[in-house]
Amino acid sequence: MEWGGGRRSGNIEDRRGLGPVGVAGGGIGAVVLAIIGYFVFGVPPETTMNAVNGAQQPAAQEGARGQVTDQEGQFIDVVETSNDDVWGPVLARHNIKYTPPEAVVLYDQSTATGCGTGQSAMGPFYCPADHKVYLDLAFWKELETRFGAKGEFARAYVISHEIGHHVQTLTGASDQAQRMGARGAESGSVRLELQADCYAGVWAKHAPEASGGKIAINRADIEDGLGAAAAVGDDAIQEQTQGRVMPDSFTHGSSAQRMKWFGKGYDAGDPDACDTFSAGTL
Fold it and tell me: pTM for the full model?
């Protein structure tokens, strides 16, 4: 993936180096975060609640906003900006006004969010309460070593998937998914996650043109994206961690499903192809 000449908007909030935070006593923030962890990532609510309730009382945390100087931060800035450049005109063609996420927040270990205390163990996530994407860059190492997903485009797929959740907030798909339930092979959670995978494919289709050719994505990059989608399928993770596959507890979809919907988005380049909620077969 070539991205060095891509536009950077500076929509980054850099909290790295500020140290981890927690929120004592849990409360509403802990409950919201537990719901997000369960609904979006499949993290058991008790895991999140225990982590939050055992943390220390934080001070308000806000990082530097704007341009970042390190290569990892600049890469994220380019991918986030590219998503904005793609989704603005794409959604306009569907009579939906696109507004960018409030920021992509880079942090270490844990951080305060509008949904409670975010933990790096949850992986990258989008908080609908504050419209921000949260990312501990240590996840990139886990993506490679634990999931075997290598290459910069695998990282771009993850970022674009999370921004896909922001798009779903704008379109109302997130509310639709919540009404359908949070677990199971046909659940609202699975349909929401597969749609976000599809949206990542839509972004990949349009990114080169939207950037004026300053971002280049080739077939090998798409294969890296498909590999990342397969690596984080519910069945692959369950087999790795539990030694067995339990479809009734799926939250994101199988490896085959995640690859399928990312591919559908890339091939069509149209969010209409990403209607997982009406799909008879996921």
Answer: 0.86
82 assigned to some structural domain = yes
Mean pLDDT of 180-207: 90
233-280 residue pLDDT tens:
988 888 888 899 998 888 899 999 999 999 999 999 999 999 999 988
Q: What is the DSSP letter of 238?
A: H
Structure tokens at 118: 């975010």
For residues 107 and 51, is the Cβ–Cβ distance under 8 A?
Answer: no
Residue 246 belongs to domain spanning: 12-273
Phi-psi region of 26 (alpha: psi -120 to 50; beta: other; left: phi over 0): left
Query: Is 281 domain-assigned?
Result: no
Domain total of the chain: 1
CB-based contact 193:177 (threshold 8 Å): no
CA angle 124, 51, 184 (to 5 degrees): 60
> In DSSP terms, which residues pair with 14 in a beta bridge?
64, 106
Q: Is residue 229 part of a domain?
A: yes
